[in-house]
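From the methods appendix. Each design record in this collection lists the tokenized structure first, followed by the designed amino acid sequence. Records were kept in a plain field format so they could be parsed without special tools. The example shown here is representative of the layout used throughout.

RECORD:
FOLD TOKENS (192 positions):
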């Protein structure tokens, strides 16, 4: 896997710097872009701050998801504990910052997609499309998980919406395709 030195090389090379041996690999561009955008004089400080920021960012969509079913104070406590999960800390320790960032966008996509399917409003689907593109531009593993989980979400919601009637089902399906899937594909084309 990629380590901190490679993230510095990716970020340096992304903005026209000289070729660095560690930078010859290809990788989704969001994290190297952030490395270069936020770069301080001390590259390791930049990586540490982005890593910690990615770890904390995971708590935000977890809070949004939990907030739909729990009291706000309980959702806040449980979302903060997400940053303390041993898996998250292991990923952080071994330089998996893009994976943490991708996980944040994965969870945000699921939250926005569920709200879009629930309300049928375009804004939720468009937000989900942008979060999907951010997931795809962060890391491959969360992108694969997003593809599988969104398929399962569609299967579960199809049954629920079918119970409400065929017009509601077709309207939400059309909205999901036009305002989430199509924009997601268009936004993700540069990363393929």
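DESIGN:
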């Amino acid at each position: 896997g990629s380590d901190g030195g490679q993230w510095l090389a990716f970020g340096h090379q992304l903005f026209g710097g000289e070729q660095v041996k560690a930078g010859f690999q290809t990788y989704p561009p969001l994290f190297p872009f952030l490395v270069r955008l936020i770069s301080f004089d001390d590259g390791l400080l930049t990586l540490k701050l982005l890593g910690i920021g990615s770890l904390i960012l995971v708590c935000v969509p977890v809070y949004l998801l939990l907030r739909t079913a729990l009291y706000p104070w309980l959702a806040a406590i449980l979302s903060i504990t997400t940053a303390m999960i041993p898996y998250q800390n292991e990923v952080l320790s071994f330089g998996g910052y893009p994976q943490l960032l991708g996980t944040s966008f994965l969870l945000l996509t699921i939250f926005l997609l569920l709200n879009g399917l629930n309300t049928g409003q375009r804004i939720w689907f468009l937000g989900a499309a942008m979060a999907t593109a951010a997931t795809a531009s962060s890391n491959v593993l969360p992108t694969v998980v997003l593809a599988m989980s969104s398929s399962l979400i569609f299967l579960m919601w199809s049954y629920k919406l079918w119970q409400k009637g065929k017009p509601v089902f077709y309207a939400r399906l059309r909205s999901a395709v036009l305002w989430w899937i199509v924009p997601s594909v268009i936004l993700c084309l540069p990363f393929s």
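APPENDIX NOTE: The two ends are 20 Å apart (CA to CA).
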